[in-house]
Amino acid sequence: MGTAVSAEPERARAEDFERTIAADERIEPRDWMPDAYRATLIRQIAQHAHSEIIGMQPEANWITRAPSLRRKAILIAKVQDEAGHGLYLYGAAETLGASRAELLGKLHTGRHKYSSIFNYPTLTWADVGAIGWLVDGAAITNQVPLCRCSYGPYARAMVRICKEESFHQRQGYELLHTLARGTGAQRAMAQDAVDRWWWPSLMMFGPPDDASPRTAQSMAWKIKRHTNDELRQRFVDICVPQAEALGLTLPDRDLRWNEERGHWDFGAVDWDEFRAVLSGGGPCNEQRLDQRRRAHEEGAWVREAAAAYAAKHPAGADR
Ligand code: BYC
């Protein structure tokens, strides 16, 4: 069929897409969408999924050394939740026509990114608390607006993920609260963890707005609802009173309430460090990817067994 013949329905479909976005309604997998919208979503959702499964590693590091049965059970449940988040998100990417094997291949060969935050080490037990409070706190701040993302399956996955992230954030806060009221050594350990995780948490929101190539288009498509800097500011405003309640200090001498703006001013993020981590030079990049590739290879027999089972029992055959 010549392009002249197909141009008309194509234009009508594009108008329909624009109308749906303008009306704040959802785009669903069956709907027509521009190729670039599809590609942007696959990129963001896949990188989000990769972050969830790589994000299991720093915390899993402490499962065998959790200080009590209660703490161990909570931590195991949290790490399992993250595996679940990865699965919902890979599922959402599949509704756009991506294959999970291909997305994982891109992660394993370094062609896809995952969140910079997971390239930092978990040196003490207090890091589990700092990750819950700050990393999951930053994740919620970023992800609650994604529940209103224009792509239906991603938005719906985010609703459930955000509920679970809220529990994760509270457990981290409660853990730090306990340490902050413990012995001098426990307090010092909590403060040291906050000192190390604060700035990398601010980097989770992405580059500053004037250096964020994706934001304008993603906002126009209502994939993103706020800019990176807006969400970073919201996070700082939430954390300052929480740090005070914990009795811990945030490692930023420039933190000051700005009456005029109605927000906390904060110091300069080290964007050189951010860029270095993104290009593979963070403290744990190599270790995280090696571990991920190893887990994938060691899980090959499970994938083969699942495929063999599916071939023997076609969907619905035993119902
Ligand atoms: N780390 O133009 P920009 C979790 C990339 S999981 C790495 O601002 P965009 C959790 C960005 O992808 C947390 N890469 O892009 C899990 C883009 O890459 P391309 C993950 C980053 O997409 C377990 C390039 O830089 N959350 O919370 O408009 C346990 C240019 O940036 C980072 C999500 O993925 C970074 N920090 O905005 C506990 C949420 N920042 O173009 C917790 C969903 C930027 O080369 N994603 N990049 O492919 C988003 O909301 C957006 O993608 C971002 C970036 C705000 C992250």
From TrEMBL:
Source organism superkingdom: Bacteria
InterPro entries recorded: Aromatic_CoA_ox/epox, Ferritin-like, Ferritin-like_SF, PaaA, PaaA_PaaC
Pfam families membership: PaaA_PaaC
Gene3D superfamilies noted in UniProt: 1.20.1260.10
Protein name listed in UniProt: 1,2-phenylacetyl-CoA epoxidase subunit PaaA
